[in-house]
Amino acid sequence: MALHIETPLLASPSLSAAAGRTVWLKLESLQPSGSFKLRGIGVACETYVRQGKLRFISSSGGNAGIAVAYAGSRLSIPVTVVVPESTTARAKALIRQYGAEVIVHGTAWDDANALALSMLGDDAVLLHPFDDPLLWSGHATLVDEVARSHVRPGAVVLSVGGGGLLAGVVEGLRRNGWDDVPVIAVETVGADSLAQSLDAGRRVTLDAITSVAKSLGARQVSEQAFAVAQSHPVRSVVVPDSAALAACERLLDEHRILVEPACGASLALAYDRADVLAPYDNVLIVVCGGATATVDDLRRWAQPSISGGA
Ligand SMILES: *Cc1c(COP(=O)(O)O)cnc(C)c1O
Known about the structure:
four-stranded parallel β-sheet, 10 strands, binds pyridoxal-5'-phosphate, L-serine ammonia-lyase, EC 4.3.1.17, Ser/Thr_deHydtase_PyrdxlP-BS
């Protein structure tokens, strides 16, 4: 039994009307951990247990850490999540809710990750948030489910942080014979490490993440993500935080589903009828979800004076 659930796939009348074409939503926001991350992390955790690992370590104060905590609770494996001081109280509470230990260490993620690495031994394994082939094969199952439902999308829209979702979805498209289905890879301004890398022709490392979409905040995409963005038809798009936040509010009003701006970025293409969608009669949006934002956060981030800050 997989740790993730099969999620609903539904055509959205409101998003279809806004986009001027059929918009399918794959509702990863309904995963028990609140995001698609559980697909890949679930597969990785189950594999590491079979290999004899007795403890999971994560250094993610976001949806990856929450997914590891959930997976550990299901597999009866103790989990330690090391996070920097900047991690929100809500994220820490979500991690602890699944019985995981939270250690707060350092001001930046690099400090937390260094401590996490020092805790590894023969028995403990570090779950990477996006750069692990096991993760990609797990994320690919979302495409398997779409293929089984006989919906063939003209294009798949998804958000990109470190590129684990991108790598996994492309793997899923390929293993279902959909090599020719393009992917529209969306980032926000200030978290646009893939767009900048494709422009430069090499993997760029951002100095800082200035977007409110913290779940897209990998300073550099993985080698695999950069490679598939060039070997598969991938269009890279960057939207402002304001568009991502507006999309979150509209989804909440119209579908009664709360997601992070990281997810709103993908939805914004449909709400704003982006030109990049013009060639397609129907598109599939991966509603990647995210459990760390509250309605108050969305409102606060939408204030012009704070938008773009932390
Ligand atoms: C992790 C995450 C992303 C980005 O995924 P990557 O695999 O890092 O590209 C997007 N949205 C949400 C909600 C996430 O948790």
